[in-house]
From TrEMBL:
Full protein name: Globin
Single annotated GO MF: heme binding
Gene3D superfamilies: Globins
Family membership noted in the UniProt record: Belongs to the globin family.
Keyword Metal-binding: yes
Domain Globin: 1-135
Alphabetized UniProt keyword annotations: Heme, Iron, Metal-binding, Oxygen transport, Transport
PROSITE patterns reported for this sequence: GLOBIN (PS01033)
A Pfam family it matches: Globin
Record organism: Raineya orbicola
Amino acid sequence: MTPNQAEIVKKSFPKILAGTLSATHILYDKLFELSPDTRDLFKKTSMERQSQMLIAAIGKLVKSIDNWDTVKPDLEALAKRHAGYGLSPEHFVYFGHAFIHMLKSMYGNEWNTDLEESWKAVYQKISEVMIGTLFENK
Ligand code: HEM
């Protein structure tokens, strides 16, 4: 992730925050389409609450994106809380596709390569830490 990509992601977050609480169903619909087994993981979940928690978590990460050392412990703690959910590393790949798909749908014609590459770079970083915490050293 380049400093410019971090800046693009930071700048685009307010728009995403404004729209995603109503758009997260796009993320989860896509996730369930790409990886149908994930539907069961959320069977007992209030999707509205889940969406709020997801966006709050992403917002917190984005805010400190230039200072990754402060983000990492939070991210590791978040990953550890995912330990009991029965996830596989592939789930993070599908989740990433679904996340980008949601952003694309929200932005419509304003979506561009810079936004896509920047958000992908950020998601890559987030998922690397989460996958590392969850699945390595086991
Ligand atoms: C960028 C990556 C991700 C972020 C930021 C994220 C964030 C969150 C947050 C904030 C929660 C609320 C509970 C807590 O804070 O511990 C949560 C719960 C959960 N997440 Fe994630 N998550 C990510 C990736 C995934 C992936 C890849 C899956 C599986 C496909 C997943 C499945 C779940 C499930 C099953 C719950 C529990 C829902 C419940 O309470 O019933 N998460 N996630």
